[in-house]
Please model this.
Amino acid sequence: MKILVVSDTHRRDDSLRMVIEKYKPLDMLIHLGDAEGSEMFIADWVNPGCRMEMVLGNNDFFSMLDKEREIVLGRHRVLLTHGHYYGVSIGPEGLADEARSRGCDIAMFGHTHKPYSNTVSGVLLLNPGSLSYPRQEGRLPAYMLVNVDESGELTYKQMYL
Model:
């Protein structure tokens, strides 16, 4: 299963559209918030049959997206959130605690505009960074590719434009 994970595109969609085209066909696209209205169009950009999982970001003022979602990827239970409700700009510990309390072993988040991957309190935390307004050193637009193999194991790769 090939999954594209993005966040914080803030309606500047050229890079998102380019990355979608590069990796099509996708089995799933996960958007971790701050699409700012583009969520209405993203389904038209992916291939038919691509499962869409999107959550609300702190700048998605008029969106009807869910605040967060819990999904199953292979053998893993995954919490999807933008992250601002858990203070991820200060540190990931609150999000790790919340994910663990829900029985999730992975949490994916955005908000910081910085790529991140680390295991905290037994929870794998993944942030793809931002395709539109990156804030990490070097400021390269960023996203993640996730693969779930036939045995249900999940692997991920941080990618940059």
In short: The chain has a mean pLDDT of 97.
